[in-house]
Amino acid sequence: MEDHIQQCETQSDALNQKRKVRLLHSAPCNHKGNRKRETRSNSIIIREPRVDRDQRSYSPTVTPNTKETRKENARSRPHSVMSGKTSSSDVWSSNNDSVSLYISKPGLAKLTTVPNHCGLSRSLTWNAKDCCYWGSTTVTEQLREKYHQRKLKKRDQPGSERQRSKGGVFTLLDDEKETKQVEVPGQAIKRFRTAVIVVKLVIRWFEAITENSYTKTPRTAAEHQYYTLYTSLEAQKLAFNKNLFVREQAFARVPKWASHILGTEPQERSESDCRRIHALLRGLKSFDKFTEQIQLSMCKSFSYQRVKSGRVILRRGHVGFNYYFIYSGSVFVNIEDVNIDGNKFDRTVSVLVRGDAFGELALLQNIRRTASITCRENCELLYVDKETFAKVCPQIFEKEMEEKEQFLMSLRVFRNDIWNKEMLKGLCADAQIQQGKCSVIRRLELDKTHHHRKKERHSTPVLSDEIINIITNINKINEDEEEEEEEEDSSDEEATKERMLESMALDYRRDGKRKKMEEKADDNKEVEKKKLMSLTGPTTLTSLMTQDKKSKDGKDYIYVHIGELKKNEIFNFYAILYPSRAPPHSSVILVSTGSTLMRIRRKVFFKIATREAKALANNVAKLERFVTDEQLLEAYKEMASWDEFKYRVVQESVGPNKENLRKKLTHHQIRVVHERRERSHKLLKTLEKNNKIAKKIEEKEDSEEREKRNKMLENLRLKQKSVSEQQFQLCKIVRKDRNDTVIGRRTVTSSMTSAQPVNPVLQEIRDVRDAPALDCLPKRRMSRRYSQTTSLGACLPLPSDKPIPSNLSLDYK
Ligand SMILES: Nc1ncnc2c1ncn2[C@@H]1O[C@@H]2COP(=O)(O)O[C@H]2[C@H]1O
């Protein structure tokens, strides 16, 4: 806009130099002052206007609408020309130096000149009944001077009527009544500029807030690893984000029509609009739990918001105003935690995705936000305000609360006689329902004898990288801590246990890949990450294992899957209640795989529980049976030896693969191969000899000899047959040794492998098969050459001068 104005100013300066005021009128206006369609026949062009100061009216010079005048007008017309229909109160203006047209009444036009520099404006009026403004003009120096003088004069006059516009542009009002109210075009531009500045400032302010939200908010470990993986291009290449290709994602965008409806005021939304929005949102998990009536009333008042990845939507401790639904994208739920050193840090407890909702706790209980919500991916949110929420939602949440209460009542720990309704309500209010499966993993310390064995194993009992959120630093529990103190403090153990639950909604696969990315990160990031790690402890299985390896105690740990959490079971209850009393084997990890959990905070539990309730919990917890470390170790040993046995059997029956073979080839073996090769040469020579004999016999013609010859031929054929047989077998063995997957006739049974007793004939054939090549090749390429040579071995030459009888099969290829 500013550029445009600048351009116009330059143009008008140029026109100023010509000292010419040009006003062009062409198409006539109708009686309302609106411009009629231009018809050449009756249009007029007004040029070189004369301003009659006394009459305050404009007397244009009328020139005929000829071809020449039109051409000249076209040339002189600046870019800033505005044209179009005029109506009452329209202001046409191009820039501050231009003469503008203001239609105050139908058929009455006011001309306002606004000199650029001195800030003066001049209103002129003329009858614009049949006129249309087509051009721009400039105020002459002389005119400007006069205006200036007149302005000063007017200012000095005590009773003079003078108005000062908001934009600071003066409007000299004429004595005549019709010129009293004049809208100054320059003023409009000024206002526009002010508006632009305000908008710019607001945008900058928002940007600053957004920037703060990104940079000043400390990230949790989960956030950090997510952004490390999925924000850098390099990382994206390495980590394939399958979610980007999930079908649902393609459709999970609020369509344009819906965002348009959601952008309107609630009172402007029609019944059908609400129905359409309702149809769109049906199927969202947390939306579906409301009755249709509530859903419709929500649709009436929904607002729509897009939030970019990394933005903080809610901050813990803030006052709650809205209740949010996630239409697309996902968010992190972060709470504050305390680490071993007593430092506070943010920890991701959950990831909410499309269909989830958040922000109800603060509204329902009239408290501050209990957690911070940060955008994980770009999100589309729909939210209702506090008032609407208060009107429609509480019934639903009451129902949900009842369900939670019912569930708690079904548990032994929350017996009716000890836990009254109020207490249960208190628990349920804070409790979160979380989705996830619950495999229980435990860290097991291996003894020295098993340290060795473990290395031999080719599979570990650890589930996989999916098991990520691990409890740590169990050994550092301060055992002297008083029980009561522990109840109050959110101690390390509590944090540890909470971290177990953390695992339930995170994307473990991605987390697992984090380590690789960490290695690639720059120094600053490394430092940051180390700081983060020191706060939160390792968050991936890989990092935990690395830590275990590095630990100075020299102990060897493994992670064992010890079972599944069943319905109505409480996870590691005793250790959660009394961390200091818990045996060291309580290093248990809960791994999410698909069930629904209710998560009660230990702190809240102790806050609400009475003495009896605590005693009851204690009793229940004591009934919990965990396998001991010894039992686990025993089971592990058995498993390890079973694994070893299986491995050995497989090795023996399948034989060494190509890679292993290459590694295992010793000098001795190479020598053996040489010897075999020589023997195969000998065999070939014998074959050739036989062929020569056969030729000689054929040459002899007498009948006596013929019989002999026939016999010999028969013998030869038999020999040929046996050779081809040998070659066939040789092929098979060679292929088997190459570890090829051979289909149909090529398939070699395990009876042919080295693990089986060796047939002397086959042994001979083996000699042949390994004949060429291994000697002259570098070790690195041996296996390849080996395969080449073995395939060559399958094509050993046969006596070619006699056609092979049909009964001799060479169908071994
Ligand atoms: N552990 C959690 N799991 C999932 N959502 C949570 C958890 N803790 C808090 N929230 C949500 O985060 C919101 C933060 O604001 P509120 O306290 O209003 O309401 C909170 C819940 O909706």
From TrEMBL:
Residues 49-91, 150-169, 474-531 are annotated as: Disordered. Pfam families: cNMP_binding (PF00027). It comes from the Eukaryota. Keywords: Coiled coil. Residues 479-493 have a biased composition (Acidic residues). Residues 687-714 form a coiled coil. InterPro entries: cNMP-bd_CS, cNMP-bd_dom, cNMP-bd_dom_sf, RmlC-like_jellyroll. CDD domains: CAP_ED (cd00038). Residues 57-66 have a biased composition (Polar residues). Residues 155-164, 516-531 have a biased composition (Basic and acidic residues). Residues 286-410, 553-626 form the Cyclic nucleotide-binding domain. This is Cyclic nucleotide-binding domain-containing protein. It comes from Mytilus edulis.
